[in-house]
Amino acid sequence: MPDVDRYGQQIPRPVLSDTPNIELAMKDMLDEAVKHVVLHFATANARAAALSGSSAPVPGMLTWLNDSRRYEYWNGTAWVRLVPHKQRGSTLVSFSSRTSFTRDITFPTPFATDPFVSVWIHSGAGETAQWHARPINATKTGFTLFLFSTTASAWSEVSVRWEAEE
């Protein structure tokens, strides 16, 4: 009867008292070990094709997807991103005598789904007082920065920062 690894992962290893069968011993060991390593796939579709039937994922299985450059784990029901996908940036805004301003922002890397976007004006005094910032029309590839106020004013290279998370 095979013994198991010393780390409590239940990976079988042959012992001298086993009936000699290197093919079966290696298959059993590899089948169990693969559940405990990071599996690499080109795409989620390639992963779905490979991990089905008798090779179905097990809870805790970890994969890396090359196309989206992310780790995901199987929670027993679905693949879940291991680390949230976040992107941050800023833009300098300048204008004269306006009560509103918009600028299209493109994310450095597209998201898989529409992200949650936050924006803020990196100053609260002087020319930016009484101004508000909102993201509008957020998509996988970007959003529109919308700045507005009830009082017209001018800005010169004011930093507006944003953060997007999927």
Please work out how many helical segments DSSP would assign.
2
End-to-end gap: 48 Å
Q: State the total count of DSSP E strands.
A: 10
Helix content: 10-25%
Tell me the overall shape: rod-shaped
In round numbers, the mean pLDDT is 89
Q: Determine the oligomeric state from the structure.
A: single chain
Q: pLDDT under 50 segments (min length 5)?
A: none
Hey, roughly how much beta strand do the residues contain?
over 45%
Category by helix and strand content: mainly beta
Task: Describe what this molecule looks like in 3D.
- The protein has 166 residues and is mainly β.
- It has two helices and ten strands, in the order ββαβαβββββββ.
- It has helices spanning 22-34, 44-50, and strands at 3-4, 12-13, 38-41, 62-65, 70-74, 79-81, 86-106, 116-121, 132-136, 142-165.
- The longest helix has 13 residues, at 22-34.
- It is rod-shaped, with a radius of gyration of 26 Å.
- The model has no long low-confidence stretch (mean pLDDT 89).
